[in-house]
Write a structure and sequence with these properties.
CATH superfamily: (Glycosyl)asparaginase
CATH topology: Glutamine Phosphoribosylpyrophosphate, subunit 1, domain 1
Distance between the termini: 69 Å
Helix content: 25-40%
CATH class: Alpha Beta
Number of helices: 10
Strand order of the largest sheet: 4-3-2-6-5-1-11-12
Low-confidence stretches: 141-146
Structural class: alpha+beta
Bound molecules: aspartic acid
Length: about 325
């Protein structure tokens, strides 16, 4: 049995290192962490780790998680400031604490205690992009309980979520890296890391640190991980859904389609692009996106280089709405 690693397209920079871990007999968990670590260190990726786009106050806040499909062990950190290695910290939570998710100041404290290197994560390039979208009043931290702040964030989020403006100075307003691996022993693992939605409300955590939403792995059925609007994956438990659909007999492709269809049912004024990568229990890879032209990368131990493959497309607006969004009877009908 040969190992395989699957990642979102921005995982290209780390996938060979991840496969190398498998080649020398490392575990799927070691592989996904090794691959993710390189994306977190990449200054050209403004959606993950160092150089990520900051929150509304200009602070880079990282979310990350790992899940081990052998025993369903998991660890995650959310709203971590001042440390680049969010994925290593998520693994520390899994391996060393009797908890799954540590957030905010507690996550920074744990990073300090475990000896991770503190780092200013905001690069000048990321700051320029951040400022390009920000009214000065919204950047004023002293305002953060005022109505003005709240209306600013609503306005900024609405603008960054609109399909017409999916890129800001050439950068998507959000993004994430997903890594899934199956090693030669049949163990499956998943890792997800992100700086989250740029201009997010301070302390906001997306799907990436939420086990079941942005990340799920189970040796018996497969694994899945998400990128895109985290609030949607949180509400649909998307990664867990994909794995559960396979558990109950769906093919990988049908599981992905069904999970995407569930996302399309959400009543969400900020609905935006969603992407899922997945593997089944045998390590067969697949991926879906709401948007045309999106890709993912995969590489097995026997391949000389990674392969970039197209994602299956399930547009959010191409799905007929179910009774979830059934209109309520109007007042005139219910109270003649
Ligand atoms: N899912 C991430 C979040 O909501 C962002 C993204 O992947 O675009 O924080």
């Amino acid at each position: 049995m040969t190992g395989i690693v699957v990642a979102s397209a921005n995982g290209r920079i780390g996938i060979e290192a991840a496969v190398e871990v498998l080649r020398v007999g490392g575990s799927a968990m070691d592989a996904v962490v090794a691959g993710t670590r390189l994306v977190e260190a990449n200054p050209d990726d403004h959606t993950v780790g160092y150089s990520g786009l900051p929150n509304l106050l200009g602070e880079v806040e990282l979310d990350a998680s790992v899940m081990d499909g052998r025993g369903l062990r998991a660890g995650s950190v959310g709203a971590l400031q001042g440390y680049q290695d969010a994925i290593d910290l998520a693994r520390t939570v899994m391996d060393e604490l009797p908890h799954v998710l540590i957030g905010g100041e507690g996550a920074a404290r744990l990073a300090r205690e475990t000896g991770l290197q503190p780092k200013d994560l905001l690069t000048p390039e990321a700051e320029v992009i951040w400022r390009s979208r920000l009214g000065e009043e919204a950047a004023d931290g002293s305002d953060d309980s005022s109505r003005r702040y709240l209306s600013s964030i609503r306005e900024i989020v609405a603008r960054t979520a609109s399909d017409a403006e999916l890129t800001v100075a050439g950068e998507p307003p959000h993004g994430t890296v997903n890594f899934l691996a199956r090693d030669r022993h049949g163990d499956i693992a998943a890792a997800v890391s992100t700086s989250g939605w740029a201009w997010k409300y301070p302390g906001r955590m997306g799907d990436s640190p939420i086990i079941g939403a942005g990340n799920y792995a189970d040796n018996r059925w497969g694994a899945a991980a998400c990128t895109g609007r985290g609030e949607m994956a949180q509400r649909c438990c998307t990664a867990h859904s994909v794995v559960t659909f396979m558990r109950f007999g769906m093919s990988l492709k049908d599981a992905l389609t069904t999970a995407m269809t569930d996302l399309a049912q959400l009543d969400d004024p900020y609905a935006s692009e969603m992407n899922i990568v997945a593997i089944d229990k045998d390590g067969t890879p697949g991926a879906a996106s709401t948007t045309e032209g999106k890709t993912f990368v995969m590489m097995t131990e026997s391949m000389a280089a990674p392969e970039e493959r197209p994602r299956m497309v399930v547009p959010l607006d191409g799905v007929s709405k179910s009774t979830l969004n059934r209109p309520r009877p109007s007042d005139s009908e219910s109270n003649p």
